[in-house]
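Trying the structure run again after the queue cleared.
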Amino acid sequence: MPSSTGYLLSAIVIAVGLFFGLWWILVSGGDEAPWLPAGLAASVVLLVAVSAREVVMRRAWTRYLLENGISQNPPSRSRSSSRSQKKGFSASLHSAALRAIQKQSSAADRPASTPEMHLDVAQLCHDYLSSTDEAIRSGSHGSEKGIALRAGQERVRALHKHHLLTWARGQSQLLTHEAQQRARTFDKIETATRAVDCLDSALRIYPDEADLSESRVAIEEFIASVKVAHWVELAERSAFKGHYRRAIDRYRDALFYLNQDVVKADVRVAGTEKIEREIGKLKARLKPGNGAHQRKPEDSGPNHD
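Done. Tokens:
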């Protein structure tokens, strides 16, 4: 375990150095109360350092309990005493791990929590379930302790489902919102695809969650709409430049994505009718005698639309 004294001393030294550094800068600048912002900045640094250590060490200790709960073998004078000590040692570690998981679960359920906090708790639950499953299969616990382990597993399974689903919903919403704010088509699609991956990871474990399936369909529909809008824009640019054949091809690319199953039927029908009308207008311009012509030098070159 890292030294708490050394860490805190380092944090205090940094905070004090920051205080005097800001104080000197503010005094040089003629500030009337330089100690106030300098003290505030030093206090924030110290508070963040202490909070970060608490979070990191809590997670590290929980993982230590889960990873070593059934592998430790304390020394003993005889085989029977070693076996009894190992039972008590493993049972106490599993109990401590369960308490740590419940504590982190409460922290993750606070209003200011992030999706990553829920994912961390879900991972700890998974590790706990794997550890206790191995302990139960090994038969190293008596009937009473086995019942206690199974009861703990039931609680942890409920926590695992709750936090994994909460993470999937929260993270997919954040990524979808981020995708909507992106300017480039590639960035929109890539970010939205990451949101779908989050939902898929949860649906593989809990496939009966209807709200996750509905969210997945909505995001896929958003991806399809981005692709359609991209190809329609390229088609309009080509038509504006007089590249009618190229514009028709790009409108047909838009139709391909528009006719995917994830797109709602009414949106598909309305969009298809509009694109078909544009294709009809472009075909009319291509007919001989209508005064329209193709800019062949540009068509033969690379695509700059």
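The CA atoms of residues 175 and 195 lie 5 Å apart. Worth checking whether this holds up in the mutant runs.
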